[in-house]
Amino acid sequence: MSCLKDVPTLRGDNYTEWRKKVELAFVCAELDWVVDTPQPVRPTEPVR
Questions:
Q1: SS3 assignment, position 35
Q2: Cβ atoms of residues 22 and 9 within 8 Å
Q3: Which residue from 41, 40, 42, 39 is spatially nearest to 22, judged by alpha carbons?
Q4: 1-48 pLDDT, tens per residue?
Q5: Using the 8-state DSSP alphabet, how is residue 15 labeled?
């Protein structure tokens, strides 16, 4: 699974790049994507 070394550590600002590289690593390893939910939307700050 040499594709895994190309997957960066997930941080808040690199989700899109991380997701693409994880999907590519799964394809290389012939695995299915198990968790396929989109990135959650950040809730708005409550008004007080």
A1: coil
A2: no
A3: 39
A4: 567 778 889 998 999 999 999 888 877 777 665 666 677 788 888 877
A5: H
**Would you state the pLDDT for residue 15?**
93
Q: Which tokens in the block code for residue 45?
A: 């700050």
Cβ atoms < 10 Å from Cβ of 6:
11
Token code pair at residue 17: 């790049």
Token output for 24? 């590519």
To 10 degrees, the CA torsion angle through 3, 7, 24, 29?
A: 40
Domain boundaries, given as residue ranges, for the chain: 1-37
Alpha-carbon separation of residue 40 from 14, 18, 24, 48 (angstroms) = 14, 15, 21, 24
pTM: 0.54
C-beta atoms surrounding 19 within 10 Å: 15
